[in-house]
Amino acid sequence: MECNKEENILVWSQFMKPKIIFGSPLEKMDVMDRSHFLVENLLKLYANEKYILVVNPQLDDLKFYVSFKVGATSLSVLRSIWQTFWLSENWESKGNVYDQLANSLMELEDRFDDFIQKLKSSKWDTQQLNLKVPKEISIDDINTF
User: Fold this and answer.
1) Where would I find the Root UVB sensitive protein C-terminal domain in this sequence (predicted)?
2) pLDDT per residue over 60-117, tens digit each?
């Protein structure tokens, strides 16, 4: 089959669901209100993670943004992907965004270890995960809360 190479009809990223944008600084995320109060709450919510995930619920398709903190690892990237997929499968369009993020973090805590065990039982070497953390680390983990 031949196709015009100039047309982006088969660009892989168009088929990737959910849409995840990694390494995006908080100030560039086209999400809900970016008030000081919201940012402070997100920092508190993600205090135990090496990333912050937010979602733009106003589009037809959900769009997720992940900012990584200093010290993020491949496991941090995998955790953010797991949380994103859980959210995309369980998203309630009428629900409160912050509450849904909080609920997804509880699910992550409850179920991520089981996910890792399933990877291991499928012969994945979880010590050799090679998920690159974007170089644009935008959040320095400040424990001021």
Assistant:
1) 2-133
2) 778 899 999 889 999 999 999 999 999 999 999 888 889 999 999 999 999 999 999 9
**Does 87 map to a domain?**
yes
Whole-number Å distance between alpha carbons of 145 and 99: 20
Residue 58 lies in a domain: yes
**Residue among 31, 39, 26 nearest 56 (CA):** 31
What's the number of domains the chain is made of? 1
Please give the Cα distance from 64 to 40 (Å, whole number): 19
CA distance readout (Å), 121 to 83, 107, 114, 115, 126:
21, 21, 10, 10, 10
The answer to the question of residue 51 being in a domain is yes
| CA distances in angstroms from 129 to 23, 32, 73, 75, 117, listed in the order given | 19, 33, 10, 7, 14
pLDDT at 116: 94
* SS3 category, 140: coil
User: Do 84 and 58 touch, CB atoms closer than 8 A?
Assistant: no
pLDDT, residue 14, reads 52
